[in-house]
From TrEMBL:
It comes from Thamnophis sirtalis. PROSITE patterns: F_BAR. Keywords: Coiled coil. GO terms for biological process: clathrin coat assembly; clathrin-dependent endocytosis; neuron projection morphogenesis. It comes from the Eukaryota. The keyword Coiled coil applies. This is Growth arrest-specific protein 7. One of its GO terms (cellular component) is clathrin-coated pit. The gene is LOC106541741. Residues 27-86 form a coiled coil. Residues 1-175 form the F-BAR domain.
Amino acid sequence: MADEAEVHLKFSSKLQAEVEKPLLNFRENFKKDMKKYDHHIADLRKQLVSRYAAVEKARKALTERQKDLEMKTQQLEIKLSNKTEEEIKKARRKSTQAGDDLMRCVDLYNQAQSKWFEEMVTTSLELERLEVERVEMIRQHLCQYTQLRHETDMFNQSTVEPVDQLLQKVDPAKDRELWVKEHKTGNIRPVDMEI
C-alpha cells in the first residue's frame, strides 16, 4: 500500500511539473499574445473609421463649396460688380482647397486601409502559426501525460491506449485549416476609395 501511495505521489508531482505547469504557462502567454493582437487590430480599425469619417466630411465640404461657387457665378451673370468677382475668386479658392482636402483625406484613408490590410494578413498568419503551435503543445503534453500513466499504472494501460492512438492522429496543419475556415480569415476587408 505504501509503495502504491509513493508511486501515485511521484506521478502527481511529475504530472504537475511536466504537464500542468507548462500548459498553464503556455495558456497565459497565449492569452497575452491574443490580447496584444486584438488591441493592435482594434487600434487600426479605429484609425480606419476615423479616416473614413474625415473623407466623408471633406466630401461634404467640397460639395458645399462647389454649390457656393455656382451660386456666386450665377450672381455674377446677373449683375457685374467688383465685389461679386472677389467673392467668386474667394469661392474658387475655397472650392480648390476643399478638393485638395478631399484628395488628402482619401489618400490618408487609402494608406490606413493598406496598412490595416497588411496587418490583418500578418496577424492572421501569426494567429494561424500560434494555433498550430498551441495544438502541437497540447498534443505533446497529453502524450507526456499518457507516458506518465504508462510508467505509473502498468495494469490499466488498456484505458490509456485509445487516448494514445487518438493523440497520434492529431494533425496541427489540419487543425489550422479548420481554424481558418471557422474564423473566415481574409474574407471581408475595406477597399481602396476613389475620389
